[in-house]
Amino acid sequence: MKSTFLVKKVLNNNVLIATHDKYKETVMIGKGIGFGKKGGEEITENSAEKLFILHNEREQEQYKMLLTQVDEKIVVIMNDIISYIQQHVKTPLNEHIHISLTDHISFAIKRVKQGMDINNPFLLETKVLYPTEYELARHVLEMIKEQTGISLPEGEIGFVALHIHTAITARDLSEINRHSELIQTIISMIENGFSITLDKESLNYMRLIRHLHFAIERANKGEEVEEPKKLSELLKKEYPLCYNLSWKVVKVMQQALSRPVDEAEAVYLTMHLQRLMTKI
Questions:
Q1: How confident is the model at residue 30 (pLDDT cuts 50, 70, 90)?
Q2: What pLDDT score was predicted for residue 227?
Q3: Which are the contacts of 89, defined by CB distance < 8 A and separation ≥ 6?
Q4: Are strands 4-12 and 15-20 parallel, antiparallel or unpaired?
Q5: pLDDT confidence of residue 64
Q6: How does DSSP assign the chain, residue by residue?
Q7: C-alpha distances in angstroms, 82 versus 22, 121, 177?
């Protein structure tokens, strides 16, 4: 990348948009980088502490709009955070994380200042399903506390972890949330069906969550699961309550996903349920 850019628009004292003959629009971030700058003025690359390119024009416009609403200090912190995340994952992050995570953290900080807290019902499930993202998110909250003095609630670890996961996989956050809601619905079905409260910290619970997650993934991909006939008959005979509830779960999954769910899923789910029941 050439070292000389042209200032296109100053967004605030610490952020500006510059143009480059090869890379087009580039976001340049640095303390005081925008102060006194005017459009068309030359600026060198080493004037910026951070710079990145938003290739998608829609993302560019969303980011510009966001930066007019977010505290300048938060913008600088968030780019340090995103750089930290990128250093600890193997794949390039989807550039939308610059918008989605910055917006989320900015709003979360405002809520804390106003004494508001939003419960995260998917925290434990997120920790089980995305352990790497969860640990990165935990450190993100530590970075925010170190640089702002603000302690975000533990539930935010889960929310941040999902943002990181979507940036790594390029999956839609709303899709991931729908799957989390479906898993929550199934857990409630199991607890109500057996009149029990599951130990959310137990190894068997974590295994169940992973199984449900991968069952949903298999259904979405249309993957077939081999059904062990003899095992199916044995489980149906020996554990009728678990077997029947498993079939109800499969039907709920089919309805929620609007996709067929392989019958063999009920067999393997029965084994998970029986394992849980023996630990009650």
A1: confident
A2: 67
A3: 132, 136, 164, 168
A4: antiparallel
A5: 81
A6: --SEEEEEEEEETTEEEEEETTTEEEEEE-TTTTTT--TT-EEEGGG-SEEE---SHHHHHHHHHHHTTS-HHHHHHHHHHHHHHHHTSSSPPPTTHHHHHHHHHHHHHHHHHTT-----TTHHHHHHH-HHHHHHHHHHHHHHHHHH-----THHHHHHHHHHHHHHH---HHHHHHHHHHHHHHHHHHHHHHT----TTSHHHHHHHHHHHHHHHHHHHT------HHHHHHHHHH-HHHHHHHHHHHHHHHHHHTS---THHHHHHHHHHHHHHHT-
A7: 24, 25, 22
pLDDT-derived band at 280 (thresholds 50, 70, 90) equals low
* Higher-pLDDT residue of 57, 158: 158
Residue 21 has pLDDT above 60, yes or no: yes
Tokens of 47: 């004037």
pLDDT at 133: 97
Tokens representing 41 are 């003025």
Question: Which two three-digit tokens encode residue 106?
Answer: 């900015």
Give every strand in the sheet of 42-44, ordered side by side.
42-44, 4-12, 15-20, 24-29, 50-52
Asked which of 19-33, 81-95, 108-122, 189-203 is least confident by mean pLDDT, the reply is 19-33
Q: Contact, 148 vs 108, CB < 8 A?
A: no
Q: What is the pTM of this model?
A: 0.79
Q: How many residues are present in the chain?
A: 280
